[in-house]
Structure to design on (354 residues):
């Protein structure tokens, strides 16, 4: 079996061969927002997830007008092919991918293996911030079908109407720890949403950060009871690791109805009276 | 545009404050960069730079030790 939408994944060779392609814009999105300044794919723009890929006042995704401005400043038009990559096996590249698809950008791709693979292969890095002629990107409307909010998750838990996928580590899932080791705790309680299956995001990738084959991914998810034909909701701590698994389920495996619950454990684990399993 | 090629890359795994981590370093121009991530789930916990690999890794390991030591484990 091959990926359902193989065109959304490009390898490092493809990116290296399109660095000067005016129809392609490469964007780096890192967990560690200082990584871009320490060398990036030549010509790539750098997007900061803490200031440019979220609403900085309300806890929310990027407002449509601000996303349009960011894309326009990056020299991107609706016809541009956007290739995303980043550190931590593309966690926030996937976060950006999810938002761009929500806002209807047609051609978005992820560089398989991300920043680490590019560096491991000894490919050129630039330390100069890329600058591109601006465009007027139209303000988009959001497709809500790719996102779950708290009431929908609560309903799904009660009615057993969706497969819940908790993509955090087993120690977070069981409540042994409240955040990935070394990262800040952002919730009052540990554990997981009742009925969720624990399928850590990292099981979807190989040692070098590239995605596993479609057959391996099918075995991973179906083996845990997450089957196509039933709605799926992914979540993690703040919604970025779950957008990585959302990408796998939606685009590599072609599941129809997959939503990312970006409120994630930071929301659920702080709710007064919310049911928790450990 | 000043493009440089990362060289002298090294990667190894070890335990810091009881947590498995991956230490990765490489040289870009005159500077060594080091990143440390927690192997599970793979988040970066420290980053540093230095004139030598030893200097970059020492600083990153100090930062990683501080952050990882603060991670609390709860009894079941």
């Amino acid at each position: 079996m091959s990926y359902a939408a193989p065109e959304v994944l490009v390898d490092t060779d493809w990116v290296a061969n399109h660095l000067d392609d005016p129809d392609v814009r490469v964007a780096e999105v890192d967990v560690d927002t200082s990584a871009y300044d320490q060398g990036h794919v030549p010509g790539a723009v750098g997007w900061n997830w803490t200031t440019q890929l979220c609403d900085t006042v309300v806890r929310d995704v990027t407002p449509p007008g601000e996303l349009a401005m960011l894309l326009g400043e990056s020299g991107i038009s609706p016809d541009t092919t956007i290739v995303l990559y980043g550190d931590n096996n593309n966690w926030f590249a996937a976060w950006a991918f999810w938002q761009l698809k929500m806002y209807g950008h047609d051609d978005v791709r992820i560089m398989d293996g991300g920043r680490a693979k590019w560096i491991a292969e000894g490919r050129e890095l630039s330390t100069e911030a890329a600058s591109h002629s601006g465009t007027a990107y139209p303000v988009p409307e959001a497709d809500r079908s790719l996102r779950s909010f708290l009431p929908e998750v609560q309903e799904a838990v009660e009615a057993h109407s969706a497969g819940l996928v908790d993509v955090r580590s087993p120690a977070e899932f069981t409540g042994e720890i409240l955040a990935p080791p070394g990262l800040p705790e952002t919730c009052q309680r540990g554990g997981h949403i009742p009925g969720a299956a624990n399928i850590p995001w990292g099981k979807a990738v190989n040692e070098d950060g590239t995605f596993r084959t479609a057959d391996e991914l099918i075995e991973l998810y179906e083996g845990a009871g997450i089957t196509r034909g039933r709605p799926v909701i992914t979540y993690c701590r703040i919604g970025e690791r779950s957008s990585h698994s959302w990408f796998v389920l939606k685009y590599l495996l072609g599941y129809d109805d997959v939503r990312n619950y970006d409120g994630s454990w930071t929301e659920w684990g702080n709710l007064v009276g919310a049911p928790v399993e450990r | 545009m000043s493009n440089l090629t990362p060289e002298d890359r090294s990667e190894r795994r070890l335990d810091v404050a009881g947590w498995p981590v991956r230490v990765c370093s490489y040289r870009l121009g005159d500077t060594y960069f080091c990143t440390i991530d927690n192997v599970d789930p793979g988040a970066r916990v420290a980053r540093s730079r230095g004139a030598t690999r030893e200097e970059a890794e020492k600083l990153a390991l100090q930062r990683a030790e501080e952050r990882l030591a603060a991670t609390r484990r709860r009894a079941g």
User: Anything to note?
Assistant: Strands of chain B lie at 3-4, 7-16, 19-28, 31-38, 44-50. The mean pLDDT of chain B is 91.
